[in-house]
Amino acid sequence: MKQHLGRQSGVQTVEVSLLDGKVEVTPKEDGQIDPAQLLKATYDSGVTATEMNMTARGKIVKDSSGSLALQVAPNRSFTLTPNELSKGLEAVADTPKMLTVRGELYEKPAGKQKADLSAPLKLLILEVQKKE
Amino acid sequence: MNTKKLALLALLVSIVSPVAQAQIKHIEMRVEGMT
What we know:
The complex is a heterodimer of chains A (132) and B (35). Chain A is mainly beta and 132 residues long. Chain A folds into two domains: 1-49, Alpha-Beta Plaits (2-Layer Sandwich), CATH 3.30.70.100; 52-132, CATH 2.40.50.500. Chain A contains three helices and seven strands, in the order αββαβββαββ. Chain A has helices at 2-6, 35-44, 84-87, and strands spanning 11-17, 22-27, 48-62, 68-73, 76-79, 98-107, 124-131. The radius of gyration of chain A is 15 Å and the shape is globular. The mean pLDDT of chain A is 90. The mean pLDDT of chain B is 76. Chain B contains one helix and one strand, in the order H-E. The longest helix of chain B is centred in the N-terminal third of the chain and has 19 residues, at 2-20. The radius of gyration of chain B is 20 Å and the shape is rod-shaped. Classes of the chains: A mainly beta (132), B alpha+beta (35). Chains A and B meet through strand 2, helix 2, strand 3 and strand 4 of A and strand 1 of B. Strand 3 (48-62) of chain A pairs antiparallel with strand 1 of chain B, so a sheet runs across the interface.
C-alpha cells in the first residue's frame, strides 16, 4: 500500500503505522495531490479506509450553489459540511484571507463495506488553526 | 537606482509568494485490513 500511495500524483512521502492503522501522507508543494485519488488508491491496494483527515491552507469561497468551500488550488476546492466552525467562516468568504484548517474529508459509513468513491469529498472543519 | 529597487522587489516577491500559496499540507488516514 505504501508503494501504491507513493506513486500517486503529488505525493512526497507516505508513512504507515501498522500498529495503529495510521497512514500519513505528506504532499509535494506542486499542489497536484488529490485526496479522492488517494482514497481510491487505498481501496485498490486491498485496504479499507475508515477515516481521512486533511490539514490545508486556502481561501473560503462560495461555489456555484452558494455553499462555502475551501479552495486549496486554482482548480481544486472542497465544499464545507455545515457546522458551527463553517458558519463562523462566512464573513471571510470570497475575500483574500487565507486560512489553515484541519478537517475530516471522509468517514466510512457504518455497516457499509465499501465507500461511494464517486461522490465528491466534503470537508467537515474540525479546527481553524490560522487566519491570515 | 530604479533597477536595483525593482530587483529587490522581485526578490522579495519570490521569497514571500510560495509561503502565501494555498495548498494541502498533510493528509492522515485510518485504515483497516493492513497486513
